[in-house]
């Protein structure tokens, strides 16, 4: 989060796992400036919310959509919905 204050640019974190809950989520951090300070607006988006978002798009039968983080970890997948958060995508 210090990175956002220093650079003044938004930051999207890779897939995170909650320390207590063990559930996966992503974080989006955006700087908000006032006259003399910079604050951070943080949105935590659960994998289930991403799945709901992806599922709202019409796609062909048996097609799938997969959302990956910047490290290739699966955040959400629309076909055979189970927890894929531990899978690393190989682009080959």
Helical content band: 10-25%
Number of domains: 1
The global form is elongated
Sketch the topology as an H/E string, one letter per element.
Answer: HEEEEHEE
Number of strands: 6
Fraction in beta strands: 25-35%
Radius of gyration: 16 Å
Name the poorly predicted regions. Answer: none
What is the end-to-end distance? Answer: 33 Å
The major β-sheet equals: 4 strands, antiparallel
Based on the model shown, name its key terms.
four-stranded antiparallel β-sheet; 92 residues; 6 strands; 2 helices; two-stranded antiparallel ribbon; alpha+beta
Description:
It is a single chain. This protein has one domain (2-77). Helix content is 16%, strand content 33%. The protein has 2 helices and 6 strands, in the order H-E-E-E-E-H-E-E. Strands 1, 2, 3 and 4 form a 4-stranded antiparallel sheet that branches. Strands 5-6 form a two-stranded antiparallel ribbon. Strand 5 and strand 6 form a beta hairpin. The mean pLDDT is 82.
């Amino acid at each position: 989060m210090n990175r956002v204050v220093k650079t003044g640019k938004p930051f999207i974190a890779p897939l995170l796992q909650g320390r207590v809950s063990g559930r996966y989520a992503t974080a989006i951090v955006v700087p908000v400036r006032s006259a003399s300070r910079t604050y951070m607006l943080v949105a935590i988006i659960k994998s289930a919310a991403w799945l709901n978002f992806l599922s709202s798009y019409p796609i062909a039968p048996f097609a799938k959509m997969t959302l990956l983080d910047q490290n290739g970890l699966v955040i959400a997948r629309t076909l055979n919905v189970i927890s894929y958060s531990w899978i690393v995508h190989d682009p080959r």
